[in-house]
Amino acid sequence: MADTYLVTGGMGCLGAWTLYHLLRTGKRAVCFDLSDDRHRLDLLMSQDEQTAITFVRGDLTDTQQVRTVFEHYAITHVIHLAALQVPFCRANPPVGAQVNVTGTINVFEAARCTGVTHVAFASSVAVYGPPEMYAPGLLPADAPVAPRTLYGVYKVANELTAQVYWHDYAISSTALRPYTVYGVGRDQGVTSEPTKAMAAAARGEDFHINFGGAMQFHFASDVAQQFILAAEQPSEGALAFNLGGPIVSVAEVARLIMAARPDVQITCADSVLPFPEGCDDRSLRDHATTIFSTPLADGIASTIAAFA
Ligand SMILES: NC(=O)c1ccc[n+]([C@@H]2O[C@H](COP(=O)([O-])OP(=O)(O)OC[C@H]3O[C@@H](n4cnc5c(N)ncnc54)[C@H](O)[C@@H]3O)[C@@H](O)[C@H]2O)c1
User: Fold this and answer.
1) I want to staple 189 with a disulfide (CB 3.0 to 4.6 A). Which of 56, 72, 85, 244 is the partner?
2) What is the mean pLDDT of the chain?
3) Span from the CA of 84 to the centroid of ligand 1 (angstroms)
4) pLDDT tens-digit profile of 284-294?
5) Cα–Cα distance for residue pair 15/8, rounded to 1 Å
6) Nearest CA to 101 among 128, 80, 129?
7) pLDDT of 63 above 80
8) Atom of ligand 1 nearest to the CA of 15
């Protein structure tokens, strides 16, 4: 049987990029999503190219539906990205818990019931507490978690769920914890503002990013490829890795956008997000055979060009 990759949340930003890279490398992909809105996929692939993807519209919170997808399509690799982001979890905590916590348990259960032995899934920098909790400098992957959002609490639950599935059923997993993902298709979530600024710049419009401070930025294309590798490279245990990269101020991102489009004004607020400035990715560098890291200036320039 050929390898078949399940991408939950395939209509989302990282999901669309993941499907794009799977197709580009000739892999068979099943997209499982509650939404059938292909606007992010349309930014990356022609309608014709998308015919190679199997689309299943379904609800992650439905245990049986998730298991049926695993069985019916003989899933061999899992990239679990579907989730509700911070504002949606804040607006409706019970639904946030159903999608992000129960949904992730459904993925692990389906893996267990169908003999899939490894799962890659999205955690987040939001598992950590605010910067003042930690010593200055890059935060190691094993720094204590202390989420200040329910979204972060649900991501901690996902990582602990993965540990139980390893101990009880020997299902290994790799969780990646992105910080601020940017790139075409990043149009929702707290940290989507820098990408919205790039889209505005491409239209020749000014934009104000409603937070400041400094953080790590990851190009969506890189993160998607890192998830594919995480799904392909089995791990001994339930591993959770920070994504790394330089710590860059939001003001510097604004400057890079204006360097690409000198005719627009991009500004940012002073307020700081409740996450540490940067996370150490040394353990991912030790584990992964490749680290995908497009330089920020190149990622921003190519994002603005793609929007234009
Ligand atoms: N984008 C970031 O900066 C960032 C940072 C850290 C972690 N993450 C995590 O990475 C993953 C992907 O992020 P993204 O930016 O692509 O998110 P996104 O919001 O763009 O996409 C999420 C997708 O999940 C789908 N979904 C929601 N509820 C569902 C359900 N009940 N059943 C099936 N599908 C459902 C949505 O329709 C959507 O297509 C998420 O788990 C997110 O928490 C993202």
Assistant:
1) 85
2) 96
3) 6
4) 999 999 999 99
5) 7
6) 80
7) yes
8) 16
Q: How far apart are CA 109 and CA 94, in angstroms?
A: 21
CA 306–ligand 1 middle distance (angstroms): 22
Q: Which domains does the chain have, with CATH numbers?
A: 4-178+220-244+278-292 (3.40.50.720)
Atom 11 of ligand 1 has which residue's CA nearest to it?
81
CA-nearest residue for atom 39, ligand 1, is 12
Q: Identify the residue whose C-alpha is closest to ligand 1 atom 13.
A: 14
> In angstroms, what CA-CA distances link 77 with 4, 45, 53, 177, 299?
6, 22, 15, 19, 28
Centre of ligand 1 from the C-alpha of residue 100, in Å? 9
For residue range 163-212, list pLDDT tens digits in order.
999 999 999 999 999 999 999 999 988 899 999 999 999 999 999 999 99
Task: Give residue 304 CA to ligand 1 midpoint distance, Å.
Answer: 22
Which atom belonging to ligand 1 lies closest to the Cα atom of 103?
31
Atom 21 of ligand 1 has which residue's CA nearest to it? 12
What's the token pair of residue 165? 């599935």
Question: 113: Cβ–Cβ under 8 A, 6 or more apart, which residues?
Answer: 67, 70
Q: What is the pLDDT of residue 62?
A: 98
Q: Identify whether the C-beta of residue 54 lies closer than 8 Å to the C-beta of residue 30.
A: yes
Can you tell me which atom of ligand 1 is nearest the CA of 192? 3
103-152 residue pLDDT tens? 999 999 999 999 999 999 999 999 999 888 998 889 988 899 999 999 99
Q: Which residues, at least 6 apart from 299, have a Cβ–Cβ distance to it below 8 Å?
A: 182, 183, 217, 219, 221, 222
Instruction: Retrieve residue 161's tokens.
Output: 């769920």
Q: Looking at residue 254, what is its pLDDT?
A: 97
